[in-house]
Write a structure and sequence with these properties.
Elements: H1 5-14, H2 22-51, H3 58-74, H4 86-89
């Protein structure tokens, strides 16, 4: 199931940028994905090692919180060309 999400996300996100910017978007997504595969396990393992003795559930709360933040931030995504510019609204 993990192979279904990233291509679907990439396809959906390319519809929110101009055609000239698709390459830049896919490059940024690749960079962020690669960095998260290195940084996330390190940070989460460190957090777990610090909290396992006192509250082993902390890691699950942190992950759930990160997913909630991502969900809330996704409400700010708008399609390309849908938000009018301030200069255009004053005309």
């Amino acid at each position: 199931m993990g192979g279904i999400g990233p291509p679907t996300l990439q396809s959906a996100l390319t519809k929110h940028v101009a055609k000239e910017e698709v390459g830049r978007l896919l490059g940024a997504l690749s960079l962020l994905g690669s960095m998260s595969r290195v940084v996330s396990p390190t940070v989460l393992n460190l957090l777990y090692s610090f909290t396992v003795a006192t509250c082993p559930q902390t890691i699950f709360y942190v992950i759930a919180g990160a997913m909630c933040v991502g969900f809330i931030l996704s409400w700010g995504v708008r399609a390309h060309g849908m938000i009018p510019l301030i200069a255009e609204t004053n005309l």
